[in-house]
Structure formats: C-alpha cells, structure tokens
Amino acid sequence: MNILSTLRALDPQPVRPQKEAKPQQTKGIEIKSKREVDLMRESARIVATVLKEVAAMMQPGMTTKDIDTYAEKRIREMGAVPSFKGYCNFPASICASINQEVVHGIPSAKKVIKNGDLVKIDTGAYKNGFHGDSCITIAVGSVSEKAALLMRVAEEALYRGIAQVKPGNCLLDLAGAIEDHVKAHGFSVVEDFTGHGVGRNLHEEPSVFNFRTHQLPNVRLRPGMVLAIEPILNAGSKRVRFLADKWTAVTVDNQLSAQFEHTVLVTETGYEILTDRNLV
User: What is the DSSP letter of 130?
Assistant: First the structure.
C-alpha cells in the first residue's frame, strides 16, 4: 500500500519542490532499536508466509475475495491483525489488483482470476506493535511474453533498488537504480505512488521514490531505518486514473502493470530483507 496515494485521496497536499536534491537530515524518521527490529521481524515473517502461500495456491477460477479471506485467516492464525483492513476505511486485508489495475484493488467475489492474468497481492500484518508490508505479482497459468517480461523487470527493479541500501547512500541512489533498469527495458515507472518508512505505523517517513526527482527529500540512509521499497511498473504510459470506488488505480491506456515490494532494514553494513519469502 502506498503513502502518496492515500494522502492525496484523503487529504490532498502539494509536494513542496526543492531547488536541489541534497541529502536531508533524518528528522521525523524513526531509527529502530535492536529490540524493535526483532519485533518487526515477526510481523514481516507473517507477511512473507502469507504471500508465499497465496502464490502457491492461486489458480484460475478463484476470486480475489477467496484470496482475501484466506490471507486474513492466516494472518490472524499467526497472532497478528491485518494492517490494511480498516486503514483509511479500506475494506479488506489485501489489495488485489489484476492486469491493468495498478494498485489498491478491492477484493470481490465477482472478480474471478483467469488464466493469463497478472495479479498483484499487497498485504500487511501488525503484531507486537509493528507492521510488516510486502507485495508480489503472480503470473496465473500461461501469460504472454510481454507480461512475463514486465513481471520479471519489476522484480529485478526492486532488487536493484535494494542493492543500493546501505548507510551513507541516499534515496536517489535507490531511485536511480530502479528507474534506469525499468527504462532500459522500455517500461515506465508509475510516479503517483511511492514506498515509505514502516514500523509502529504502516506509513512513516520518508517517502521512498522509484524515479529521479527534486520534489521529494533525498534522505541519507542510516542503520535502523526500515523502508518499504515498492517499484510499480506499467507496460505503457506511467499515468493512472482512479475508478469509482476511489481506491483502485488503473493504467490510462489499459496496458499491464506489475509491482513488487519488500520491507527492508538498513543495517550497519548494508541491508536485511525482513519480508524475504525464501526464509519462511
């Protein structure tokens, strides 16, 4: 789930431009203690577990409501509560966005998953006072070559950004690595949404952008920061529009969209992916 879209939808605020993208101080950005990070690992592990299970079970004929019901059940079985449900009145435990739906798709019993779909599942879990947040794109059955490439580049872009996470680097280092990889493959980065800090609150400072900009603070990274990094790619135009539900964003040209997200800790020497699905 992305912070700028929520802010703009509920309480529109202009982004204050900066003359230069100089590294900014970390005022207002939480630095987590070892104890707090240990607690976050648990909520992040729950998110990783749920997404891994959802990816394994998804098949044509299921509805996005089926997936939401399963995800909520599993989150609660592991002693957490869904981060998204009720957040700014969002009605579900996951965002389920199919094909040209970019983000924040509302699960529905009427939305049937079909062979060839790209399905983005974004979810969060809250336990012991801390949130975990992650998103995956799932290729259902046999997808087109273009869909497979878009999905692959989106995941690669995430890891290109994560590779830049280390003390002393800045958010523009992440953003540039993501943007360059995406554009090298002819796709576009959606600029209406960003990643964010995460911890006691689902959305915290800073905004973690996926493109070069002088309009957002270019924060220098420090150990103990926890970031939700989430590049969103479109096959065509970067522009989006919102549906009547005021949540679901779709591509303006009806082309495909893909997204991947991890909750990432800045360590003394680099990074730790807290929502790593390979570890559950």
Answer: E
Integer angstrom CA distances of residue 13 from 5, 6, 219, 248: 11, 11, 20, 20
Cα end-to-end span (Å), the chain? 22
Our measurement of the distance from residue 168's CA atom to the centroid of its chain's CA atoms, rounded to an integer in Å, reads 23
Residue 206: is the preceding peptide bond cis (ω within 30°)?
yes
Q: Whole-angstrom Cα distance, residue 171 to residue 185?
A: 22
| Distances, alpha carbon 7 to alpha carbons 15, 61, 69, 162, in Å | 11, 35, 27, 25
Nearest to 225 by CA among 277, 174, 177: 174
Closest by Cα among 178, 146, 170 to 218: 170
Evaluate the CA torsion angle 102, 235, 232, 111 in order and state its sign. Answer: positive
Residue 69, token pair as written in the block: 């019901």
| CA-closest candidate to residue 172, choices 211, 198, 205 | 211
pTM of the model: 0.91
65-124 pLDDT, tens per residue?
Answer: 999 999 999 999 999 999 999 999 999 999 999 999 999 999 999 999 999 999 999 999
Phi–psi pair at 50, nearest 5 degrees: -60, -45
Task: Give the separation between CA 105 and CA 205, rounded to whole angstroms.
Answer: 24
**CB neighbourhood size of 87 (10 A):** 16
pLDDT, tens digit (0-9, with 9 covering 90-100), for 172-226: 999 999 999 999 999 999 999 999 999 999 999 999 999 999 999 999 999 999 9
**Which domains, ranges and CATH numbers included, belong to the chain?**
27-279 (3.90.230.10)
